[in-house]
């Protein structure tokens, strides 16, 4: 499954679909079966964190394929977008914008799992003085996102194919102004809770790369996962809930509301936003 709900959309269209079923449950949170399985030791020196996504084959339309192969879109693609997500040598995201109008010192937002990129590109277009890096593993989404960036002639977008956690490990400390995680896979079954992105182990990696005062912003349409995240994040040393401990925040204006999200709200389903600030 994707790191983001948008990847369930039909890549032949810019519209979102209802392929992901909205869920709202009041099942009590039980962390006993999760934190003990979050990491798998591979040796005395190395710890491998379980993936939060599963890569799968999806149809790629002509525009997405064009963006992955045509030279005019190559400026948006940091690494081999048809490859295996090799992140070798990507150890400073700011240098990617050194020759752009914004330069390397502009505010930097990283979105993890942008799906097909509709909201990611909308945010980048609406805030041209901020640099945006999107991280995704599914080639159709990467291609569509690059196509939209190119057709809108955006100069503040870069796209990376690969595992976001591995990428964050390679980056300097205090490097990113905002990290966004919108509608991540909720991994509904209890035995899969170890794959949920928001965990103490992963948040240690996320927080390390954030600047002091930087934001971690996440949103979900799964109530159980929403309260899971509050429990994990409120208890995480180094982050402060912008809305106050135990509270959710209103959707900020800079996060676009997708058609999928709007349909869900019209049907009475909830969406929960959380913003945490690095102390």
TrEMBL record:
PROSITE patterns: SAM_MT_TRMB
Pathway listed: tRNA modification; N(7)-methylguanine-tRNA biosynthesis
MF terms (GO), sorted A to Z: tRNA (guanine(46)-N7)-methyltransferase activity
Keyword Ubl conjugation: no
Electron transport among keywords: no
HAMAP family xrefs: tRNA_methyltr_TrmB
NCBIfam families, A to Z: tRNA (guanosine(46)-N7)-methyltransferase TrmB (TIGR00091)
Name the record gives this protein: tRNA (guanine-N(7)-)-methyltransferase
Organism encoding this protein: Psychrobacter nivimaris
Gene designation per UniProt: trmB
């Amino acid at each position: 499954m994707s790191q983001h709900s948008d990847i369930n959309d039909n890549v032949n269209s810019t519209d979102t679909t209802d392929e992901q079923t909205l869920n709202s449950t009041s099942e009590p949170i039980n962390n006993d079966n999760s934190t003990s399985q979050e990491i798998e030791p591979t040796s005395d020196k190395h710890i491998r964190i379980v993936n939060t996504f599963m890569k799968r084959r999806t149809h790629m339309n002509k525009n997405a394929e064009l963006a992955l192969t045509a030279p005019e879109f190559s400026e948006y693609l940091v690494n081999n977008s048809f490859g295996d997500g090799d992140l070798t040598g990507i150890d400073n995201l700011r240098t990617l914008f050194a020759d752009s109008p914004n330069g390397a010192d502009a505010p930097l937002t990283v979105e993890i799992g942008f799906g097909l990129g509709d909201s990611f590109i909308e945010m980048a277009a609406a805030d041209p003085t901020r640099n945006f890096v999107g991280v995704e593993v599914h080639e159709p989404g990467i291609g569509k996102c690059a196509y939209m960036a190119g057709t809108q002639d955006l100069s503040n977008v870069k796209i990376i194919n690969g595992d976001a956690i591995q990428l964050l490990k390679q980056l300097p400390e205090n490097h990113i102004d905002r990290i966004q995680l919108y509608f991540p896979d909720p991994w509904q079954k209890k035995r899969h809770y170890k794959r949920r992105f928001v965990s103490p182990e992963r948040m240690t990696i996320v927080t390390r790369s954030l600047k002091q005062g930087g934001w971690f912003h996440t949103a979900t349409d799964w109530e159980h996962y929403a309260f899971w995240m509050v429990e994990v994040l409120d208890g995480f040393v180094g982050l402060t809930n912008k809305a106050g401990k135990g509270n959710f925040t209103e959707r900020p204006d800079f996060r676009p509301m997708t058609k999928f999200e709007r349909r869900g709200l019209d049907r009475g389903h909830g969406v929960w936003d959380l913003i945490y600030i690095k102390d």
